[in-house]
Amino acid sequence: MNPLILPEHSSAHPTPVIVALDFDNAEATLQFVRQLNPEQCQVKIGKELFTATGRSLAESLIHQGFKLFLDLKYHDIPNTVASACKVAADMGVWMVDMHASGGRRMMEAAVEAVAGYAHKPLLIGVTVLTSMDEADAREVGIVKPIAEQVVDLATLAKSSGLDGVVCSAMEAAPLRAALGQEFLLVTPGIRLPNAQNNDDQRRIMTPQDALTAGSSYLVMGRPVTQAADPVAVIRDVNAVAAQLQGTSGL
Ligand SMILES: O=c1ccn([C@@H]2O[C@H](COP(=O)(O)O)[C@@H](O)[C@H]2O)c(=O)[nH]1
């Protein structure tokens, strides 16, 4: 096993797991969440569940003690994104994201909008979706290799004041080298070593490889929600993280 150089912020989040609650209704979500422990994972609400349930389920999860990542990937004019981030801060979300390609003024407006909050949400910039490969990127006008595009967008996000980025774990090592240990790397596209297929994801890594490469958080949807034993998957990932951190367990 490769040695892991721990980012300084890692002690603040003893579990790297963010479970993507990609369900289409509140009942199924709450039934699934009943087995989860907020000490052992964070949770994420994305476009599907938020469209179905809105703010009430998000607030219910926060009241249950979960750190909530509101993954709505804002991409709009600065005033609109800043205002949305302020609402997210009022709700008490832990992390919220926006497309870094929305530009510096958009990201700086978001940073300014939440600056006054005692518990301000972590602001995260989406770089290049983990579902995209090089051919997909070319088709939407990204002329650089994805790895370069991700580093460039992450550099812009950091200099605009964001706390971190969403990227593939495949880009984690170059991002750590370019942007240091404190910058958060939130990595979806996680697949277990025994996965039968990658679904719609293209830039994937296993939990162990992602953590070793420098990921701060692993976003895991189907590998957890469709597992026979979701709690066991989370426990195993936490055990890998603890082992890499050289501690005895979470
Ligand atoms: O680049 C991105 C950004 C966000 N996501 C989200 O993460 C989860 C991944 O789910 P899996 O089932 O583990 O593939 C999902 O909610 C996406 O919306 C991403 O995959 N890639």
What labels would you give this structure?
single chain, OMPdecase_AS, OMPdecase, lyase, 10 helices, decarboxylase, eight-stranded parallel beta barrel, 250 residues, binds the ligand O=c1ccn([C@@H]2O[C@H](COP(=O)(O)O)[C@@H](O)[C@H]2O)c(=O)[nH]1
Please tell me about this protein's structure:
This protein is an alpha/beta fold and 250 residues long. 42% of the residues lie in helices and 14% in strands. It has ten helices and eight strands. An eight-stranded parallel barrel has the order 1-2-3-4-5-6-7-8, surrounded by seven helices. Helix 3 links the parallel strand 3 (68-74) and strand 4. Bound molecules: the ligand O=c1ccn([C@@H]2O[C@H](COP(=O)(O)O)[C@@H](O)[C@H]2O)c(=O)[nH]1. Ligand LLZGTKA7 binds next to strand 8 and helix 9.
Percentage of residues in strands: 5-15%
How far apart lie the N and C ends?
A: 19 Å
Note the total helix count. Answer: 10
Structural class: alpha/beta
Q: Outline the low-pLDDT stretches.
A: 1-13
Query: Could you tell me the number of beta strands?
Result: 8
Main beta sheet: strand number and arrangement?
Answer: 8 strands, parallel, barrel
Order of helices and strands: EHEHEHEHEHHEHEHEHH
Q: Which strand order do you get reading across the main beta sheet?
A: 1-2-3-4-5-6-7-8
What small molecules accompany the polymer chains?
the ligand O=c1ccn([C@@H]2O[C@H](COP(=O)(O)O)[C@@H](O)[C@H]2O)c(=O)[nH]1
pLDDT averaged over residues: 94
Shape: globular
Q: Can you give the helix content as a percent range?
A: 40-55%
Radius of gyration: 17 Å
Family: Belongs to the OMP decarboxylase family. Type 1 subfamily.
Active site: 73 (proton donor)
Function: Catalyzes the decarboxylation of orotidine 5'-monophosphate (OMP) to uridine 5'-monophosphate (UMP).
Keywords: Decarboxylase, Lyase, Pyrimidine biosynthesis
